[in-house]
Design a protein that fits this description.
The chain has 223 residues and is mainly alpha-helical. Helices cover 67% and strands 0% of the residues. The chain starts with a helix and ends in an 11-residue tail after the last helix.
Length: 223
């Protein structure tokens, strides 16, 4: 029975973080489109560096910390409300706020196909990492495994965006994902041990790119 529960958790995690899960993540680049337009990311090597920095020291690291806190707080409605408010306030631009809130809303709507009391404890509007963290925690999915899957889903989508923006090919994209496996494991382990005092980023160029995207005339993505 224990093995059956583990397999069930794996199946749910795979479904929720699959590119096919209907949240619309393909529409966002998190500022990457502007970075490409400004010449900050010009090839697959620079794309890998960009993504490694964001996940280790930037906005995605903060998302991982918020995910972990949401996972641990899944049974506490008051704590989840505070966390959701903090996560929304941390969004560094209008598009970043729109991205994380709309993805969170879409995730909570779709994930209710797996009923659980956690949906009543979460605010109606919660950022994406808080929403996914709380739901995976409520379903008994291990924090470190959930974080690793969350980071992999982000990187897969970001690599796909890079391919669509013409800075990498499909073979390059797979090499990036393969090359960042140890990095994902390390970030997941650090985030699993983190607390809110570990929030913080040092990716000024990425933050500026996210802001500058708001005025970009020709674009494929919403952020």
């Amino acid at each position: 029975m224990h093995q059956d529960r583990e397999l069930q958790a794996l199946l749910r995690l795979t479904a929720w973080l699959s590119p096919a899960f209907p949240i619309g993540s393909f529409a966002y680049s998190g500022g990457l489109e502007r970075a490409v337009a400004d010449g900050l990311v010009r090839d697959s090597g620079m794309l890998r560096c960009w993504l490694e920095t964001l996940t280790g020291k930037g906005s995605v690291w903060n998302d991982a910390v918020l995910f972990a806190e949401g996972h641990r707080s899944h049974a506490d409605a008051a704590r989840l409300a505070e966390l959701a408010e903090l996560a929304a306030a941390l969004a560094g631009s209008r598009e970043r706020h729109q991205e994380t809130m709309l993805l969170g809303e879409a995730f909570l709507t779709a994930a209710q196909a797996w009923p659980d009391d956690v949906f009543g404890r979460l605010p109606k509007k919660a950022s994406y990492p808080v929403a996914v963290g709380a739901v995976t925690g409520a379903h008994g999915i291990g924090l470190e495994k959930a974080l690793a899957a969350f980071l992999h889903a982000y990187l897969s989508q970001a690599v796909s965006a890079g391919i669509r923006l013409g800075v990498a090919g499909q073979k390059d994209g797979l090499a990036i994902l393969s090359g960042l496996e140890e990095h994902m494991i390390d970030v997941a382990a650090r985030a699993a041990r983190s607390g809110l005092d570990d929030l913080g980023s040092a990716t000024v160029q990425a933050d500026i790119a996210g802001l500058r995207h708001e005025t970009q005339q020709t674009r494929l993505f919403r952020s």
